[in-house]
Amino acid sequence: MSKALRLRRLSRPGDDRYLFVPLDHSVSDGPVVSRDRWHDLIGSVALGGADAIIVHKGRVRTIDPRLLGACSLVVHLSAGTAHSADADAKVLVGDVEEALRLGADAVSVHVNIGSATEERQLADLGVVAGACDAWNVPLVVMAYPRGPRVDDPRDPALLAHVVNIAVDLGADLVKTTLARPVERMAEVVASCPVPVLVAGGPATGGSVVDHARAAMATGCAGLAAGRRVFTAPSPAALVAELASVIHVDRHADLVRAVAGVAP
């Protein structure tokens, strides 16, 4: 299968906009939801209209593929925990071939620019990018300015550098932080030749829907929101609302259906 075809599958309406729901937090921070809620969460995210979920390899084996439907699968290859002496350190814990055997449509790698282990993370990114090219697998790079040398992780010039590092080393899509002030995210997007997605932000922040609207207004190609989704009272309803924002109301009927409102 060509990389172009796999990339197209990552956007359900085919409009080159993306709503991803990362559920990889169980490695870094602890369980996302209880075991008896896991299948319901996956089904809700897919029903709501997410374009893809992002999980680690072991978690893939716990997912009933029937729950995903048209929702794509991205296997995350990086790991690190909040208990580490260096919370910004990331190591590879999987590879592209393994992800393909699990049915992945794409893989993702996390890189923290400015961290004490930046060199190792960049080298790992290069290795994964080479394998992605060999196997025609899209590569999503989660690239952030994080570490002791980073004064302002939302600085537009720094973010522009970070996303372009990801592109130069092989990213097909880049996920990063929303710039501050928000309107200057347009400069980051304009600097980058591949689609830029923004993270959903902290669980204690303001409305994630407003966050998505602000990001899309600057030219971003989408949103990757995990914690904001799986801690929501109704993950399906929130994902449906976000899908409507990301895909410019292409999912309006789905939003109404999930909310129980007649068209």
TrEMBL record:
Annotated source species: Saccharothrix australiensis
Record-linked Gene3D superfamilies: Aldolase class I (3.20.20.70)
Taxonomy of the source species: Bacteria, Bacillati, Actinomycetota, Actinomycetes, Pseudonocardiales
Catalytic residues of the enzyme: 144 (proton donor), 175 (schiff-base intermediate with dihydroxyacetone-p)
PANTHER family from the UniProt entry: 3-HYDROXY-5-PHOSPHONOOXYPENTANE-2,4-DIONE THIOLASE, FRUCTOSE-BISPHOSPHATE ALDOLASE CLASS 1
NCBIfam families hit by this protein: PRK07226.1
InterPro entries named in the record: Aldolase_TIM (IPR013785), DeoC/FbaB/LacD_aldolase (IPR002915), DeoC/FbaB_aldolase (IPR050456), FbaB-like (IPR041720)
GO MF term set: fructose-bisphosphate aldolase activity
Protein name per its UniProtKB record: 2-amino-4, 5-dihydroxy-6-oxo-7-(Phosphonooxy)heptanoate synthase
